[in-house]
Design brief:
Elements lengths: L2 H19 L14 H4 L5 E2 L19 E2 L2 E2 H9 L2 E3 L2 E4 L1 E3 L6 E3 L4 E5 L3 H7 L6 H8 L5 E5 H7 L15 H14 L4 E2 H10 L1 H10 L6
Parallel strand pairs: 1-10
Antiparallel strand pairs: 2-3, 4-5, 6-7, 8-9
Helix pairs in contact: 7-8
């Protein structure tokens, strides 16, 4: 079989696989999510995460910020596919990007900070102003709707200690976290950068092979 024909067959198979296993669109338009190799060079590297005393969730604001008459939390659920009545979810389902399971958006869901607030605090947010911390805590680029169980299992961990159960989500998660770190000039420990690169190894190979853009 000619090489070009093999290439077409592989491309068709990859397209079919992507159509049947693609992750749901997160609040950030995933078509705008750059490749990890384009983002990670913009993220400073530190030897390890050092715990900084003084962290409290209230340092990042007293709950969710207002948004469109409700709060950022309700806006996230609405974007995920929920129906709302008086800022309360009535119905709606979505796919949990961390586990791949179906979420009932009216029950057992939480909004996760992809780059956890306490980790951000340790990595430099303790030096920010109160307004900067509130903006970070409510930035949709750093938020995702997930199950309570997945959110609690992730806790305040970074990629070296935690990855989504759904292997198809791991590069997506690494790319989202890297974008947030770069946007807010937060460094990442070397082990977490290595884990992020490992999660995207096949994705990066595919991008290079197909000539996809990796601009950031």
């Amino acid at each position: 079989m000619r090489p070009f024909r093999i290439y077409l067959l592989l491309l068709s198979a990859a397209t079919l696989l992507a159509a049947t296993t693609a992750l749901p669109r997160a609040p950030l338009d995933e078509t705008d999510l750059p490749a990890l190799s384009a983002v990670l060079p913009h993220v400073a590297e530190i030897p390890q995460r050092a715990r900084v005393l003084g962290y409290d969730r209230a340092e990042f604001g007293a709950g969710w910020a207002p948004s469109a008459g409700c709060t950022v939390r309700e806006q996230m659920l609405l974007d995920a596919g929920a129906d709302l009545l008086s800022c309360q979810v009535t119905t709606g389902t979505a796919r949990d990007p961390y586990t791949g399971s179906v979420l009932d958006l009216a029950v057992d869901v939480e909004i996760d900070h992809i780059l956890p607030l306490s980790a951000a605090w340790d990595l430099g947010a303790h030096r920010w102003t109160a307004a900067e911390r509130v903006a970070f805590a409510n930035d949709p680029r750093n938020l995702v709707v997930t199950s309570r169980g997945a959110n609690q299992a992730k806790s305040d961990l970074l990629p070296a200690a935690w990855m989504p159960d759904d292997r198809r989500a791991r590069c997506w998660y690494a790319r989202r976290l890297a974008v947030v770190a770069a946007t807010y000039s937060l460094p990442l420990p070397v082990t977490d950068k290595v884990s992020a690169q490992a999660a995207c190894r096949m994705d990066e190979v595919t991008r290079v092979w197909l000539g996809w853009s990796v601009d950031f």
